[in-house]
Amino acid sequence: MTSPEIASLSWGHMTVKGCSSSYKDCKVWPGGSRAWDWRETGTNHSPGVQPADLEEVLKKGIDLLVIGRGMSEALQVPSSTLDFVMQKGVDVRVLQTEKAVAEYNKLAGQGAKVGGVFHSTC
């Protein structure tokens, strides 16, 4: 399975190729995508992304995870979360969301087993 291309990104709106839904925030992995609902884990901009936000994507057999922190990079990513990802043997890149989507799409287009979580507003 390949990682799906993120087809579009604008403030508060993302679409993934092959998916009829649009997302505010999303998770993607080889073969799928879904909304990233912060309420599931109690995530907020600070302290930010938690291991529980990433577990689902990490279980999909990825080698690299891309995290999009938002258009203004308001979403924090604690070092403990990065340590959690690396302990799973997965490389991680944390970027402003537009740059994160570009990086993710480049890697997906090269056939990498890449996953991502992306925040599309602040």
Automatic annotation (TrEMBL):
* One Gene Ontology term from the biological process aspect of the record: positive regulation of fat cell differentiation
* CDD domains (alphabetical): Mth938
Q: Carries keyword Nucleotidyltransferase?
A: no
One Pfam family from the record: DUF498
Gene Ontology cellular component terms for the protein in this record: cytoplasm
Q: Where in the cell is it found?
A: Cytoplasm
Keyword annotations for this protein?
Cytoplasm
Q: Does the keyword Cytoplasm apply?
A: yes
Signal peptide from the UniProt entry: none
**Domain of life per record:** Eukaryota
The UniProt entry's sequence similarity note says: Belongs to the AAMDC family.
Q: What is this protein called?
A: Mth938 domain-containing protein
Q: Which organism is it from?
A: Perca flavescens
What does UniProt list as this organism's lineage? Answer: Eukaryota, Metazoa, Chordata, Craniata, Vertebrata
